Amino acid sequence: MLDEKLEPIFADVLRRNPGEDEFHQAVREVLDCIGAVIAKNPDYAEGALIERICEPERQIIFRVPWVDDKGNVQINRGFRVQFNSALGPYKGGLRFHPTVLLGTVKFLGFEQVFKNALTGMPIGGGKGGSDFDPKGRSEGEIMRFCQSFMTELFRHLGEHTDVPAGDIGVGQREVGFMFGQYKRMTNRYESGVLTGKGLMWGGSRVRTEATGYGAVYFVERMLRTRNQEFEGKRVIVSGSGNVAVYTIEKVHQLGGRVIACSDSDGYVVEEAGHGIDLPLLKEIKEKKRGRIADYAKARGAGAIYVPGGRIWDVPADIAMPSATQNELTGHDARTLIKNGVMAVGEGANMPCTPEAVRAFLDAGVLFAPGKAANAGGVATSALEMQQNASRDSWSFEATEKRLATIMHGIHDRCAEMAETYGSPGNYVLGANVAGFIRVAEAMRSLGVV
Ligand code: NDP
Ligand code: 2IT
User: Could you identify which of 107, 140, 168, 351 might form a hypothetical disulfide with 26, taking C-beta atoms 3.0 to 4.6 angstroms apart as the criterion?
Assistant: First the structure.
């Protein structure tokens, strides 16, 4: 039930952003959580502050024309939603996926505002991307697309203005092509304008690993509140991209056993030995840009490949959804609960549907919401910006230590806020309240802008 002050605000969000279901879902979750904050401190509802938080500061939509390898002209749509800059320059990734619509980018930008606030670092929230589908495209096509995309986007960026990074379909290769085009168009080697760069040209150590590692650090700390640990646990991780691969790596380092992972075609289960063979998975996914079916084939009899199946049917102690939004439904949640899941950590953005989140909370399953659990990626991006600003480069160990400290800090802040607002152990409430308060405080100080 929404607070009565928030009801008309949400009704307005629905009316003014028709058809953007994912954006509605993300806004609804935050508004559901901040009712108690408003009741305690009505000042936060003054000056249309909540209405302003729900309205992006700027939304940029542009045509991205490019020529494919056959000489045909292709047209895609580019987006950048600069959602909130109260805490710092807009910061958030770029997603290249055929399903990307304005509403997708708005939901991701909105989540990013609170996530970035939770890190405690000086970064505002934004997100961008395109409905470009990188699957099956040659390196030349990817480069030409990235160059065309940046030819419009560059004028909206800057190390003090807006700093994109990767997300689905955008990794170091794409960031490189975009940084090259930005450098060419501006005639500036402005390292701090993009993060997720290569180590040779201004990138930070641990950025590649950061989101997955950070999510595992968060869940580890959460397990500890019940005297549990990863050691000996059966873990399933959906997806097999950047976040999934480094989630698997850290779980293995902590003695857990990841027995299943997936892509949009299906999942693989490997019960024997140490579970998923990470060096092989990296070889196939990162080097060859292959599929989970290729991985399963290379593993032979020890691995079972289930095309088109649901990975959540695999019994596990811990589930880490790390692919995409709404990939884990209420039905999946009930299956996991029936099979005895004790903790769920969202590596992806909003991977669990509201019904699934409700089911986990009601069943007393430890649940780490994405905007807290996957904040390690953007936090390490902020560390990359720090290194760029001081023309410095830190060791792997020092950077990973900073990441671990940041994740533990986020965990503890969420836990404390959940307790303060009467729902101990509810990290969804804790994350939304803690993120909201930091953004709201800054916005109040900055006046009506
Ligand atoms: P990648 O592109 O590296 O990997 C994405 C993975 O998810 C692939 O295995 C992909 O499978 C799968 N996937 C994507 N879309 C779908 C879909 N519609 N249905 C089923 N599977 C899908 O992306 P990342 O690992 O970077 O991102 C994964 C999630 O983590 C996203 O929600 C992203 O927003 C979030 N995130 C990423 C951060 C980062 O630093 N990269 C930081 C914080 C959050 P397939 O190859 O078949 O498409
Ligand atoms: O969703 C996310 O936090 C990201 N894709 C990372 C953003 C960033 O700027 O590093």
Answer: 107
1-55+426-449: which CATH topology? Glutamate Dehydrogenase; Chain A, domain 3 (1.10.285)
CATH topology of domain 210-364: Rossmann fold (3.40.50)
91 Cβ closer than 6 Å to some ligand 2 atom = yes
Q: Enter the tokens of residue 392.
A: 């410095």
Q: Which residues are catalytic?
A: 127
For residue 210, the ligand closest to its alpha carbon is 1
Average pLDDT rounded to a whole number, residues 215-219: 98
Q: Which CATH architecture has domain 58-189?
A: 3-Layer(aba) Sandwich (3.40)
Do the domains at 58-189 and 210-364 have one common CATH topology? yes
Output the six-digit token pair for 335.
Answer: 């299956």
Rounded CA separation 242/323 (Å): 9
- SS3 of residue 161 by DSSP: coil
- Cα of 407 vs centre of ligand 2, distance in Å, is 15
Q: Estimate to the nearest angstrom the gap between the alpha carbon of 338 and the chain centroid.
A: 27
CA 303 to ligand 2 centroid distance, Å: 32
Q: What pTM was estimated for this model as a whole?
A: 0.98
Query: What would the mean pLDDT of 367-387 be, rounded to a whole number?
Result: 98
At 16, the amino acid letter reads: R
Residues 6+ apart with CB under 8 A from 274: 252, 257
